[in-house]
Amino acid sequence: MQGDSAEPAKGTLYRKVAADLREAIAAGDYGSGGKLPAESALAERYGVSRGTIRQALAALRADGLVTSRRGTRRVVLGTTRVQSFSELVSFTSWARSVGEEPGGRVERLERRAADARESEQLRLDPGAQVVAVLRVRTLSGRPVMVERSVYPVWVGELVAAIPADAVSHTEPLQERGVVFADADHTIDLVLADADDARLLECRTGEALLRERRRSTDPVGAPVEWSEDRYLPGTVAFTVHNSIAGSALSRRHRRTP
């Protein structure tokens, strides 16, 4: 790896270091509860500055993979693949960032009337037409998630034109001007139905991790309502909170 003197790579160096460390953690090189090498040792290994190493470690902390204490060797918290809500990334981009090969195939695509929940989430008139897509997602060939997405017709027609076995829907949609700028997420558990059992090769009634998500474009218009169901143990989600932006923090910072 080139050092920090490589000017064009400065903005991506820490990401490359973080990606390499993620792969090592996922492979169990450090074990759960083990310690990463010291910052100075990592800087020497990768030929970068300690500042770059700190940025990489901060990315791992945001993903819930290592402890956050600076000045000590970081402890590995676990090897579960973690998706962070600190930034909005697609399943495909996330999978590649953790060293997995993403895949997917559409099992069913239909145009139909929206139900009450879908109309509410997509801000459509009751009974308006939508395009519903049932899709299985894989990591390195293994089924890990069933994706149920509902789109306004104008977006759904673009989705229908994408090959059924395309790895990503987000990327070709962005090329056609559909930008997923913001999203609201709800996480809970749900029992596998017949489609889940068939596509994920699990038992009907098995508990799955469910993420419900409404995505909006840069002007706040809903472009997708999706329910993703993951096999347990294949992914975890992390959220980073801070008192810095809260009303309580602002009150404490006020001067007398």
The chain-level structural class is alpha+beta
Instruction: Kindly report how far apart the N and C termini lie.
Output: 52 Å
- For the CA atoms, what is the radius of gyration? 21 Å
Mean pLDDT: 82
Helix content: 25-40%
The arrangement of helices and strands along the chain is HHHEHEHEEHHEHEEEH
- Major pleated sheet: 6 strands, antiparallel
* Rough outline: elongated
Strands of the widest sheet, in order across it, are 2-3-4-7-6-5
Amount of beta strand: 25-35%
Number of helices in the DSSP assignment: 9
How many strand segments? 8
Q: Uncertain segments of ≥5 residues (pLDDT<50)?
A: 1-9
Short description:
The protein is an alpha+beta fold and 256 residues long. The chain has helices at residues 10-26, 39-46, 50-62, 91-97, 116-122, 153-160, 170-175, 194-200, 247-253, and strands at 82-84, 102-113, 129-139, 142-152, 182-191, 207-216, 222-230, 236-238. A hairpin with a 5-residue loop joins strand 6 (207-216) and strand 7.
